[in-house]
Write a structure and sequence with these properties.
By secondary structure, this protein is an alpha/beta fold. The chain is built from nine helices and eight strands. It has helices spanning 2-19, 37-45, 56-65, 82-85, 98-107, 135-143, 164-177, 191-196, 206-209; strands at 27-31, 50-53, 70-73, 89-95, 113-118, 148-154, 182-184, 201-204. The structure holds pyridoxal-5'-phosphate. Pyridoxal-5'-phosphate binds at residues 31, 33, 54, 74, 156, 187-188, 203-207, 218. Pyridoxal-5'-phosphate is lined by residues 31, 33, 54, 74, 156, 187-188, 203-207, 218.
Length: 218
């Protein structure tokens, strides 16, 4: 696994070079959902600090077991699970509605929670994220919440299609709405393309930890 990590970091550096970007401007989040704490510990020992989790309970358990890691919440978040994540996640990537922002603010108890707004960039039904046309209104509401700091945008492009148009559109939305510096986009299959299109955070699981048990693809 430390070899996988090294290979991913090398590819990130190469993609930055192609794009004329400083590698320090790209954060690698190792997506550790379903991975046991022992695997995460190996990655920590190999110098990886940031980890991404999709399930609130799993994030809480792992954050308690592995306080040396920095945690990112990247899954769809139900309002009643917010309390498990707030204060434990360095960054919540998936705020896509006002009610969720309000609950995060309520649970922050005076602290400031850093968040990203997830955009349903290809307007896919049944997918999380605010529709691009709904983004300005949502940003305005979230910015009115003092306990939240919106630091950028996140997306998951449609499966089985060229992700670049989605990456470009998210980049353009960030520019148009001035919503913080971060662009969380790119997974194992497409993080290099995402970096070429401006990603500041890539979320990579399989390429680091291997295929997830029970997953047929990647
Ligand atoms: C699982 C997941 C990833 C990582 O996917 P890989 O293909 O394993 O790299 C990234 N982002 C989100 C939101 C995920 O759910």
């Amino acid at each position: 696994m430390s070899e996988n990590l090294r290979a991913v970091r090398d590819r990130i550096r190469a993609a930055c070079e192609r794009a004329g970007r400083d590698p320090a401007g790209v954060l690698l989040v190792a997506v550790s959902k379903t991975r046991p704490p022992e695997s995460i510990r190996v990655a920590l020992d190999a110098g990886q600090r940031d980890f991404g989790e999709n399930y609130a309970r799993e994030l809480r358990e792992k954050a308690e077991a592995l306080p040396a890691a920095r945690w990112h919440f990247i899954g769809s978040l139900q309002t009643n699970k917010v309390k498990l994540v707030v204060g434990r996640a360095e960054l919540i990537h998936t705020v896509d509605r006002e009610a969720l922002g309000v609950e995060i603010g309520r649970r922050a108890r005076g602290a400031v929670q850093r968040v990203l707004v997830e955009v349903n960039i290809a307007r896919e039904p049944q997918k999380g994220g605010v529709m691009p046309e709904g983004l300005p209104a949502l940003l305005e509401r979230l910015r009115a919440l003092p306990a939240l700091r919106v630091e950028g945008l996140m997306c998951m492009p449609p499966l089985g299609q060229d992700p670049r148009p989605s990456f470009r559109e998210l980049h353009e939305l960030r520019t148009a709405h001035g919503c913080g510096p971060e662009l969380s986009m790119g997974m194992s299959e497409d993080y290099e393309a995402a970096i070429e299109e401006g990603a500041t955070i890539v979320r990579v699981g399989t390429a680091i930890f291997g295929a997830r048990p029970g997953s047929a693809s990647v």
